[in-house]
Amino acid sequence: MLVEQDPGNLSSLGSAAFSSTIGKDSTIYYLHFGKYLIDEQGYISADSSSRPFLSIQEAISYAERNIEILNWNTDQ
After folding, report:
1. How many CB atoms lie within 10 A of CB 34?
2. What pTM value is reported for the model?
3. Which residue, 9, 72, 5, 3, is CA-closest to 36?
4. Could you tell me the sign of the dihedral formed by the alpha carbons of 43, 47, 52, 53, in that order?
5. Domain spans of the chain?
6. How far is CA 72 from CA 3, 25, 31, 34, 63, in A?
7. Burial of residue 12, with CB atoms counted within 10 A of its CB: 0-12 exposed, 13-18 middle, 19 or more buried
8. Whole-number Å distance between alpha carbons of 17 and 20
9. Could you count the other beta carbons within 10 Å of the beta carbon of residue 36?
10. pLDDT values of the chain reduced to their tens digit, one per residue, 76 residues
11. N-terminal to C-terminal alpha carbon distance within the chain
């Protein structure tokens, strides 16, 4: 699953998780792998997550290079 993270929510995740190239006003993207749950507040808990990406294209490229079997479901 590819997820967009709004710039305003970065501080809640801790600055240590982010590259110094990601600005406070930057939208970032994560890949979540495996089974996942979305709680009442909309937070995602997944089997594993990727590092942050600065664009959708960068995240998709990473997934296509590093995951042997990849199926995108665009219905959700």
Report:
1. 9
2. 0.62
3. 3
4. negative
5. 2-66
6. 13, 28, 11, 13, 10
7. exposed
8. 10
9. 14
10. 888 887 655 544 444 444 555 556 678 888 887 788 888 887 788 888 888 898 999 998 998 888 877 767 676 5
11. 9
